[in-house]
Amino acid sequence: MIKEFCAENFSRVPEAIQAGIDRIELCDRLDLGGTTPSPEVQLQTNQFAHKHDVTVVCMIRSRGGDFIYTPEEKAVMQKQAAEAIKNGADGLVFGALTPENQVDWEFVESLITCAGNKETVFHMAFDQLPKSKQLDALDGLIARNVTRLLTRGAKSGSALSNSDWINELVNRADGKIEILAGGGLTFENLDEAAASIHTDQFHGTQIVSM
Q1: Please, which residues bridge with residue 186 across strands?
Q2: DSSP string of 149-180?
Q3: Which of 100, 126, 195, 204 is 20 to 30 A from residue 69's alpha carbon, by CA?
């Protein structure tokens, strides 16, 4: 089982690593759903985590709110993505949609390019898509060799309450893309989640006891 700790800056990273996390999603401003952390925080976290054989994926998001970005915001995020890789991130976490509520493939492809040979993760922007569009969107991520999808299985609720749909996504993925379940998951319900959701990766701010 892979336990991914959603970290708001560096403050709890040492404690989380000591508690047994396997991977860090590094963010700023979790009150806004997560934004790109500062370069200084990235460097500090990457250096510390790598000494303990823990990987770090960095959030690339210029602001809170929706996932429809202006050309100016996209330019900022492309710069942030390149800097995150330069600062030693093992991967990038991102998501973007069009005003028509489709994946913004052109922009997503540009961030995949920024990642180079590092991991790429499409985040819960995916959950804003209608279910009728999600399987095709998942196929699109697979076709672009995205490493992983982070999903709670719906716009709201916990991953546990949405386990049936997450399992549909796992089935569709067929091992061609990793499915990371998140949303309302903690060390207290992790065993239940592992029994109900057909993946081996789980994400949260309280995924381990600290």
Answers
A1: 206
A2: EEE-SSSSS-TTTTHHHHHHHHHHHTTSSEEE
A3: 204
CA distances (Å), 162 to each of 41, 112, 168, 190, 197, in order? 33, 28, 10, 14, 9
- Give the separation between CA 152 and CA 139, rounded to whole angstroms: 18
pTM (predicted TM-score):
0.95
Q: If you average pLDDT over residues 183-190, what whole number do you get?
A: 97
Integer Rg of the chain from CA: 16
At 56 the three-state DSSP class reads strand
| pLDDT tens profile 36-45 | 999 999 999 9
Q: What domains can you pick out in the chain, each with its CATH number?
A: 2-204 (3.20.20.380)
Longest dimension (CA), the chain: 44
Cα–Cα distance measured from residue 11 to residue 96, given in angstroms and rounded to the nearest whole number:
28
